[in-house]
Amino acid sequence: MHDHHSEKIRLEAVQALEWLKTAESENFDRICRLAAAYFKVPTVLISLVEKDRQWFKARIGFDRDETPIDQSFCAYAICEAEVLHVQDASRDLRFCANPLVTAPDGIRFYAGAPLRTRSGHAIGSLCIIDKEPKQLSDDERLVLQDLAEMVMAQIEQRQLTDCHDPVSGLPNQRRFFADLHDLGLQAGTEQRVLVLIDALDSHRRHEMALELGAGALQSIMLDIALHLKKSLVGISCAYHVNDRQFCFMLPATMPDYELFVHRLIDRLRCMTQSDSALTSPSPRAGMVIFDHDAQSHADLLRKAMHAVESARQANTYWGLYDVARDCAWRRAFALARDVDRALTTDQMYLMFQPRFSLLDGRRISAEALLRWNHPQLGAVSPAEFIPVLERNGLIQRVTHWVIDQTLSTMALWDDVECRVSINLSPKDFDDQDIGEILRLACKRFNIEPHRLEIEITEGEWIRSNPHVIQQLKGIRELGMDVAIDDFGTGYSNFAYLHEIPANIIKLDRSIVTDLPGSLRNQIIARSILQLARDLGYRTVAEGIEDFQCLALISHYGCHEAQGYFLSRPLTQMQFMAQGQKSRCLLPVQLLENAPLEQRIPGALCQSVEPAEAPQLALR
Questions:
Q1: Which of 192, 188, 196 is nearest to 289 (CA)?
Q2: Facing residues of 349 across strands?
Q3: What is the DSSP letter of 610?
Q4: Predicted confidence (pLDDT) per residue in 98-122, tens digit
Q5: Do the Cβ atoms of 522 and 601 come closer than 8 Å?
Q6: Is 589 helix (H, G, I), strand (E, B) or coil?
Q7: Degrees (nearest 5) of the Cα angle 265, 267, 268?
Q8: Which sign, positive or negative, has the C-alpha torsion 380, 288, 159, 62?
Q9: What is the DSSP track for 86-103?
Q10: How many CB atoms lie within 10 A of CB 254?
């Protein structure tokens, strides 16, 4: 009926209307009712003809919503220039063997007016059907054609509404993907660059809505849309792909396309400046170079969004898609998605790193360390997954699990005086009383609160949240220790430390690990430990990895130490077995008897002065 090329184009036009299956159909039903009343027939159909079937957007007097193509009268109607008129199908060689005709009370009369797009492709028909033979007059044929035109007008109006943004009037995301598909059909299509314009981020949008209202936001988006459309005349087509983002495509061979985008963003920023710097939009762009294939098309907008996020993090006008960064983001998403499963299986588990007294060598406590063995990603470092948990609001759930697992494990130990330290995130102090959660957990597992130590990192987050200090005071009142972890870097400051109800300071491992080879680190460590001891804090050194490091820390008067040289993190069973073998594992006598030159590098020996014997913390 059609040559192969024209039929392919026609089918693509039909497939573009697939959305009509679920669209509101009252107007189409109304046309069917009007046709049934005017022509006095029991059946009226609005059909769309595909390769292997025809389906009905609207129907009256017909039970099925589609039929195979070999039963379709409309497949013949779309080949006609005007109305296909079949007075008696039982006498027509094309249809006399059709099951719809040979069935009892089968079709006798059929008349179908083709539905044609503006480009002239017939996509289906408006047809009227009767069980009795019937003859149409010329006037009736014209009426049927007029009704078919009404159907096409409704379809085109729905296409216009569905494929254009109601605020800007620009083609929308549906139209973008349709045009992208059409480009991919062109032979020898060159590489292109997708440019995604993020007019304003979600936080900025919320601020602007509060200050200016929704109407002002729409006005800003309309201004941006008009400016984009004007700037791209003769270059590309702008699309409004969601409520705050636009996109367009450029040839990858275009000279200085990066400069073009940079200048475009600069103009958009200038035109959207307002009196309030807080509510001025900050448009950014993300760019992706792509080939025309189905695989690249499917993920294109997501990649462009990642490029925008890269620009935002770098505080630049635009960012280029980076596959390595994208893989990292997707890995982080996978971790966040799999947390619940990890907590209910054996993927997440605890290890315990012993801590020893430098006064007598006893193992007196352990730090509970969270580990994650992901089934696909393997062993994942806490340095990677903890920030993911914090960003995605999952850290509290995991902290509750850690508390319960730690206390249930402690309940099995023979050493009922051994303490355990648990690391808390700043997010653990938000929207909950972490002290009360700890108290109830201790009661539930019959663990004395004094056996718990809470580790936090000192920072501005403590002073910015008025509830943190109060919760820490509550934790201390329970008898638990509070340790400032990683002291000596970042925000660490003794001037502010008195505001925090802590009684332990843990020297940052970056200072301790390189202690024997760094005079600077020795001066810092000795000063911190001396001042902390004078102020009544108990001190702990993390990251002890060799004998010289241990000797120096002991010489400076540190109270406790932990690190790989003393013991690696242990499983619950290993920790219990270690405790049964010996309560005094640290070679204290070796430290006391070794000459200073063996404990401390000779070049640095003269700079070291022995500290007073460590005193127990007064707090």
A1: 192
A2: 371
A3: P
A4: 999 999 999 999 999 999 887 788 8
A5: no
A6: helix
A7: 60
A8: negative
A9: ES-GGG-TTTTT-HHHHS
A10: 13
Identify the helix (H) or strand (E) that includes residue 155: helix 138-162
Residue in 274, 278, 309, 301 with CA at minimum distance from that of residue 205:
278
Residues 6+ apart with CB under 8 A from 185: none
d(CA 333, CA 501): 36
Q: Say which residue, 31 or 199, is predicted with more confidence.
A: 31
Q: How would you class 531 by CB atoms within 10 Å of its CB: exposed for 0-12, middle for 13-18, buried for 19 or more? A: middle
Give the tens place of pLDDT for each residue, 459-484: 878 888 878 999 999 999 999 999 99
Contact indicator for 559, 539 with CB cutoff of 8 Å: yes
First to last CA, the chain: 94
Q: With a cut of 60, say whether residue 587 has pLDDT above it.
A: no
Residue with tokens 């914090």: 390
A 10 A CB-CB count for 394 gives 18
Question: 10 Å Cβ neighbour count for 203?
Answer: 8
For residue 263, give both structure tokens.
């200048």
CB 60 within 8 A of CB 36: yes
Domains of the chain: residue spans and CATH: 4-162 (3.30.450.40), 173-321 (3.30.70.270), 333-605 (3.20.20.450)
Contacts of 481 (CB under 8 A, 6+ apart): 419, 421, 450, 452, 453, 454, 503, 504, 538
Distance of alpha carbon 548 from the chain centroid: 46
- Tokens representing 520 are 């600077």
- Cα 322 to chain centroid distance, Å, stands at 16
Burial of residue 234 (number of CB atoms within 10 Å: 0-12, 13-18, 19+): exposed
Q: Compute the CA torsion angle 331, 335, 336, 341 (nearest 10 deg).
A: 150
Residues of the chain with pLDDT > 90: what percent? 53
Asked if 573 contacts 352 with a C-beta cutoff of 8 angstroms, the reply is: no
Among 461, 439, 447, 443, residue whose Cα is nearest residue 416: 447
CA distances from 44 to 54, 72, 83, 126, 145 (A): 14, 14, 14, 7, 14
CA dist list (Å): 618 to 198, 407, 600: 56, 27, 30
User: Which position has the token pair 């490091």?
Assistant: 549
pTM for this structure? 0.63
Count the alpha carbons within 13 Å of 311 in the hemisphere toward its beta carbon: 29
Number of H helices, E strands in the chain: 26, 20
Side chain identity at 319, as an amino acid letter? G
Mean pLDDT across 399-415: 93
Question: Taking each helix axis from N to C terminus, what angle separates 434-445 and 395-410, rounded to the nearest 10 degrees?
Answer: 30
Q: Are 30 and 2 in contact (CB under 8 A)?
A: no
CA 370 to the chain's CA centroid: 24
DSSP string covering 334-391: HHHHTHHHHHHSSSEEEEEEEEEETTT-BEEEEEEEEEEEETTTEEE-HHHHHHHHHH
